[in-house]
Predict the 3D structure of the following.
Amino acid sequence: MHNKSIKRGGRSKRIEKRLAKPIIDPCPPGQKGGSYKPLSQDDIKKIYNTAIDLLVNLGVGEVPERLFKDLIASGAKDNGSGRVLFPKNLIEEAISNAAKSFVLHGRDEKRSIIVGGSSVYFGTGGAGVQTLDIDNGKYRPSTLEDLHNFTKLQDTLANISWYTRCCIATDVPDTYDLDVNTAYALIKNTTKPVATSFTLAEHVKPIVDMLDIAAGGPGKFSKRPFLKAHISPLISPMRYGEDAVDVVYECIKYNIPISCITAAQAGATAPATLAGFLAQSLAETLASLIMVHAIKPGFPMVFSNWPLVIDLRTGAFSGGSGETAVLNAASAQISNWLNLPSGVACSMTDAKAIDAQYGMEKGITSFAAASAGGNLIYESSGMTASLLGVSFEAFVLDDEMHSHTYRALRGIEVSEDNLGFNAICEAVLGEGHFLGGNHTLEAMERDYFYPKFADRDEPRTWFENGAKDACFRAREHAKEILLNHNPNYLSEDQDKEIRSRFNIL
C-alpha cells in the first residue's frame, strides 16, 4: 500500500491551481479565541469582587433624573449624597438577564455576524481628526470626502466585519449635519453592519427616519437594525454623563443595539496599577449594564470595557503598548467569564508613519485581544497616531494582518489524514519530496494563507520588481479600489428622498 506512486500533474497545472482563488478560505473571520488567559481564575474573582464592592459601597454619581428614578425602581439605593449604590443582587440580576449574544445585522444579511461566545471579529472605531494623505504622505484634517472614501475602501476588505465611522468630518461644523452626513456615508457605501455615535439624543429620531428609507419604509429599520451606536454613558471615575445617558434612552426606544464604552486611562482617570485599573473599569462598565437593565432588561449591549493607557512620564496616550495589550486581553477574559458579549480596543498604534513601530504595536496588541477571545475588537483597522489619525494604507495592511491572526486562532486540526502517514511513506519511497503531491496540494488550499502585500521574494527578485515595500503596495491597492469601487447601496429613489429631507453635503 505504501509503494503506490503519486500521479502528478504538469507544472502549468500546479501554477494554475496556485494562482486560483482558494476553494476553502483558510482564515475566515469568526475564529474562536480564549486560549490566552493573562488572569488566573482567582485573579478574576478578586477583580470582580472589588468591582462589586465599589458599586455597593461607593456607587456612581451625577445620575440624571430620569435614570435615577429608573435605577431606584429597579432596586438601586440613594445614599443621600448624590450617589446611587447598587446592591449585589441587582448587579447579579443585570448580568444574568443581559443579552448573551445577538445578531449584528448587515443590510446584506450575508454580512451579518453573531456577537457573543468566543467568536472573534475585527472592526473599526476611532474618531480620527486627521487623515494620512494617500498622495503626499502628510497628515491633514479629515474631511467628509475622506469618510466616504474610507467607507468605500473597507467595503472591499473581508476581515473588517463591521464598520464604525473611523474619522470625523472636520469640514462639517454643525453637529446635526455631521451626525446626518456620517450616517449617510455609511449606508451609501457599504452593506456591512455599521456603527456611529450621536452627538445629542434629539439627533437619533431623524437619523432613524433616514435609516428607515434605506431599509424600505417606516419602522423597517427597528425591526432589523443594521446600525449600532457607540456611547460612553460612564465618565471615569465613577459618574454618569447626562448627554450620553439621554442618547442611550433614545437608542433603546428605536431598537438600536449599543456599545456602552468605558474608556478610563490608567494613572489619570483610573488607578495606575493594572489590577486596580481593571477593578474600576469593570465596575464602570457594569454600571452601564445596570443602566440598560433598568431601562429595558436584556437589550442588546456590547460590554465594551476598553482599558486605555497613558505614558505616565508625559501624559501622552499610549495605544500601542504592552500594557494596552495585556489590559485589553484581561478585559476580554473577564467579559467571557461573565458570559457577556465583549468589546475591546486594540491595534491603536502610536506610530505616525506606516513603519516598524506601526507593525510591531498593531501586531502585538491585536493578537493579544484576539487570542484572549474579545468578540469585537475595535480600533483594529486603519487607525494611526494614537487614534488621532487614519490611513488608507493602514486599512489594507491591517486587513492582511487580521488574516494571519485568524489563521493562528484557527490552530491545528489533527486527523488521520492530516497526520499524513501514507503521504510520508509515498514521499520517502517515491520521489523523496512532497512537492506537487495530492496531500500537499490539498493542504495548500485548506491550511495556508498567502499574503498579497507582505513580500516573500528573494532580495534580487524583490529589487528587480522595483524594491516596493508593503506600504507602497498597500497604497497602490487602496488607490485602485478608490478609483474603481464606487458603490451606491441606495436606490435612486431612496437617495432622492433622503436628499429632499436632509442636508446631504
